[in-house]
Write a structure and sequence with these properties.
This protein has 123 residues and is mainly beta. It contains one helix and eleven strands; from the N terminus they run βαββββββββββ. A hairpin with a 5-residue loop joins strand 10 and strand 11. It is globular, with a radius of gyration of 15 Å.
Length: 123
């Protein structure tokens, strides 16, 4: 299954959703190690972006949309609308179920309990 980002919807404040997730937002979510010398990258869903509309083409092979995360500590747990999906917890990507359509809340949780969440639309 192939997905293409059709457009990204504006956030509720009238700006674009990516503007509040870049720059300072990444630093705010970092956590320092015990000695403070190392900052661990924040867990973040790398694809799809928040409020994205994905045009999903059905390839007929039962494959779904691939989602990706960056940062955080493995293992990762992926959820769609609060329900865990089958995925390899030691990988930073997962495949959404092929039957998923409409608005979805996609979440990922790392080994330290940190989470990121995006809302997307699959059409």
């Amino acid at each position: 299954m192939r997905a293409t980002v059709v457009r990204q919807l504006p956030d509720r404040s009238g700006g674009w959703a990516t503007s509040d997730r870049a720059g300072a937002g990444l630093l705010a979510n970092c956590s320092a190690s015990v000695d403070g010398a190392y900052l661990e990258p924040a867990l973040q869903i790398a694809f799809p972006p928040d409020r994205a509309e994905l045009d999903v083409e059905d390839a007929g092979d039962g494959s779904g949309v691939i989602v990706k995360a960056g940062g955080g500590a493995l293992p990762l747990t992926w959820l769609v609308d609060g329900v865990p999906i089958s995925s390899d917890p030691m990988r930073r990507e997962a495949e959404l179920p092929a039957a998923s359509r409409g608005f979805l809340k996609l979440s990922v949780i790392d080994a330290k309990g940190r989470a990121d969440r995006v809302t997307i639309r699959l059409k």
